[in-house]
Specification:
Blueprint: H1 2-19, H2 22-42, H3 58-76, H4 78-88, H5 90-95, H6 101-130, H7 137-166, H8 169-185, H9 198-204, H10 208-221, H11 227-256
Helix pairs in contact: 1-6, 2-3, 2-6, 3-6, 3-7, 3-10, 4-7, 6-7, 7-8, 7-10, 7-11, 10-11
Length: about 260
Amino acid sequence: MKALADTWYMADRHIRALLRQPMWIIVTLIQPIIWLVLFGGLFTTMENTPGWPPGVSFLEFITPGVIVMTAFFSAGWNGMAMIQELDRGIIDRFLVSPAARSSIILGRLLQGALSVAIQAAIVLVLAAIMGATYPGGIGGLIILVVISALLGSAFGAFSNGMALLIRKEESLIALMQFLLLPLTFLASAFIPLDLAPDWIASVAHFNPVNWAIEAGRSAAMDATPDWGLILSRTALLVAFSILMAIFATRAFRSYQRTV
């Protein structure tokens, strides 16, 4: 119980810090809005491409991808706050407090998951205003949001783990830039994999970003969701999240041994 209470305390601390920076929330929403408005307007002719899913508009196709990408990008920069707290000595002060050590990482991930859920809900409303429909209903939308938060938690753990290991903002920025766009475009965010080159379709099967997009899209956008695909991709994301949490925990223990 103490670990749970400490985790919520840490998450609440990060949430209050985020609310003191409303500009950060606005900036993180500008990018998905641009994707929806710009891409949704520019590439509507894709709907006429042979092989395009029948009855699905381009806006409806990219909406789950935009939500997952928003979660992915937000989580990717999660480690920057960790480096700032390392530089200010805040993490070291927590180490001499009675707070559970796991709560220092888990609280940050919980705050990230809550932020992703709020951002996803806003993007879904914006897409609906622009004309998107959700045949999967409320249940499908909830699954899409939960899957996005799960992916965000996994990459948030990875980002925090790398921040603890390299402890340099420039190095973390370079690493994240190296990963974010390639993993985004090696997925079915903007076009079906049936229309992509064979090698991209093959690589996408091993891409966690694509797992989240495929499962979320089927849940929210299909009138008859493919539950086999949803459950298998969700199971892979859970396993990936556990692996990244173990990595972040070990990185934190490695940092503890150096102070």
